[in-house]
Amino acid sequence: MNRLIIKKAISMGETSLGIEFGSTRIKAVLIDNTFETIASGSYEWENQLEDGYWTYNLEDIISGLQEAYRAMKQEVEQNYGITLQTIGSIGFSAMMHGYMAFDNTNQLLVPFRTWRNATTGAAAKELTNKFQFNIPERWSIAHLYQAIIDEEQHVPQIRFVTTLAGYIQWLLTGNKALGVGDASGMFPIDETTRNYNESMINQFDELIAGKGYPWKTNDLLPKVYVAGEQAGVLTKEGAEILDPTHHLQPGIPLSPPEGDAGTGMVATNSVRKRTGNVSVGTSVFAMIVLEKELSKLYPEIDMVTTPNGSPVGMVHANNCSSDINAWLGLFREFYEAMGQKVDSDKLYSVLLSKALEADPDGGGLLSYGYFSGENITGLEQGRPLFVRSPESKFNLANFMRIHLFTAFGALKIGMDILTKEENVAIDSILGHGGIFKTPVVGQKMMAASLNVPVSVMSTAGEGGAWGMAILASYMINKDQEESLEDFLDQKVFKNVEGQEIQPDEVDVKGFETFIERYKKGLVIEQSAVDNLV
């Protein structure tokens, strides 16, 4: 599309904006009505461990939102000579789950507790038994019930509980709304109503009835919306928060706020049944759209939904790329100590590619990139760990392969339940995230771990913010009764190319050897947690 057409689209508001709060970056992506990126902006941030909880403070949330928007707006001005004043639609997404509780004056009662906290084990276990439905530790209802168990002083004062995406939506529109995908990480969803499960809501109210709290569970939760519905409009106050220069006008429609899992499904066109995607970053999660319900409850499998309410089996591991990044940082330090400078992309490409030269099983090496606890393997805390025996083949190729393998270790354990025990059919897996920036390597390692073809689309680098922009665009550009699946297939991804890599039998066998070593070595990781302070 030429510059004049894009310039007109911007001035006419024929655009959609997606802003996603990831674990290490807030990103804003503005697209036109052909779904091409016009401009983007970002803000780097990190969570902090404060008083035993992983959190981000409200000041960083707001300043990060404003900086990502400002950088995107500045790119529009530089490239097209236009000051952004209106947008066709906006959507916000963020890390799923977690806990933000507010009182009747809209004040945050305790610091935001993110998905990364493994502090709700007792609550999650009790609710899972009560509902006969898996309640993961990071879900909002687990955080709320753990606060009740611990008799935290703030609980009677709660009047609203939401996720980070829901908080941003509320702040900018005044509407307490949540997309069904993100809502399914707060409380179980009834597939038929695409709303909170009413019988489980009643069970929870009965469970806590003796506490005498001045609220019912339904009163605390945001209203659930599905993709394509409008979930509020940008208020005057909201516009001034998003754009403190006061150029942006109020009245812009907002789509339902979603979780990063939902935007990952959209960004990889993985919302149809029998499709799936794996998102790789600080954490790693696989989302498989199911044809039918699972035969029984599995603590390792979260039941969530697509942004339009279809059931999804989610395998979420808390740890993935952090330890790889730490090791590559060490190699960078060595290189720079030798008086050399190295480009980050080249550093990653060279070192990760060494994994292709390794022994199939990684030469007997073992590592755990556990910066935090890992519920799939039963670890409440983490200790990054690398270990080998005197007989291990310790070289750079095996070292790199083993760190890529272990990044998918906990994920593999959960996925085996779906594929081997439940015989869930998966036609394709779409991968997205930083590991896939290096061609072939990440795909081959994941294909080996999951034993299914893994594809990476040319749009994969656009990420969740682009996926959120697509959801915002769907709200205003869909044909009447057009499903999200058809909108993605026939409009967004019609001409998008992808590269598929089939699992290599030698690599698959190598990973199977590794994963048995990984399972046996978990006692070493537990010992490190117990003894290394």
Automatic annotation (TrEMBL):
Q: Which CDD domains match?
A: ASKHA_NBD_FGGY_BaXK-like (cd07809)
Name listed for the protein in its UniProt record = ATPase
The Gene Ontology biological process annotation of the record reads: carbohydrate metabolic process
All copies of the Carbohydrate kinase FGGY C-terminal domain together span 277-475
Q: Which SUPFAM superfamilies match?
A: Actin-like ATPase domain (SSF53067)
Keywords (alphabetical) are:
Kinase, Transferase
State the Gene3D superfamilies in the record.
3.30.420.40
Q: Which domain of life is it from?
A: Bacteria
Q: Name one Pfam family in it.
A: FGGY_N
Q: Which PANTHER family match?
A: SUGAR KINASE, XYLULOSE KINASE
Return the similarity comment.
Belongs to the FGGY kinase family.
Q: Name one GO molecular function term.
A: kinase activity
The answer to whether the entry has keyword Membrane is no
InterPro entries xrefs: ATPase_NBD (IPR043129), FGGY_C (IPR018485), FGGY_Carb_Kinase (IPR050406), FGGY_N (IPR018484)
Q: Does the keyword Ribosomal protein apply?
A: no
- The scientific name of the source species is Paenibacillus antarcticus
For the Carbohydrate kinase FGGY N-terminal domain, which residue ranges apply? Answer: 17-242
